[in-house]
Design brief:
By secondary structure, this protein is an alpha/beta fold. The protein contains five helices and four strands, in the order ααβαβαβαβ. Strands 3-2-1-4 form a four-stranded parallel β-sheet, with helices on one face.
């Protein structure tokens, strides 16, 4: 035995098994770290890109959106950010409320494919056709 082994007998065990333990812990924690990153990214992406500004139209995407999309879009129109509201595949209650409360409402029930990509493509095409240049997405 040399002097270093006499002074730290556990050190040799760490060199033999410690790196394996560390590698095992990293492998076990990798899925949890991945999930944490995934959920953090979702929280960051759900934040508004910028403060609301005057726009040609407010578009409320289809799907549930947790029930907050239509109220957010309606509030943007009522606050004066736009005169027009476009609803993509709204619920019956959203349709009735918008038609009763807002002056210029368009309802698009013909978006294909009926997913985010289809909504984006349809919105872009109709914006270009109508000369709209700015949009707020609710």
């Amino acid at each position: 035995m040399n002097v270093q082994q006499l002074m730290n007998p556990a050190g040799s065990a760490w060199h033999r098994f410690g790196w394996r333990f560390l590698l095992l812990m990293l492998l076990l924690l990798l899925p949890e770290l991945t999930l944490l990153g995934f959920f953090m990214a979702g929280a960051l992406l759900s934040c508004p890109a910028a403060a609301a500004h005057q726009a040609d139209v407010v578009v409320v995407l289809g799907g549930s959106g947790g029930g907050s999309r239509y109220p957010r879009g309606r509030d943007l129109v009522l606050a004066g950010f736009s005169d027009r509201l476009v609803l993509i595949e709204p619920t019956v209650a959203e349709r009735q409320d918008a038609l009763a409360a807002l002056p210029f409402v368009e309802i698009w029930d013909d978006v294909t494919p009926s997913n985010s990509w289809g909504e984006a493509q349809t919105t872009r095409a109709r914006m270009q056709a109508r000369g709209w240049r700015t949009v707020l997405v609710g």
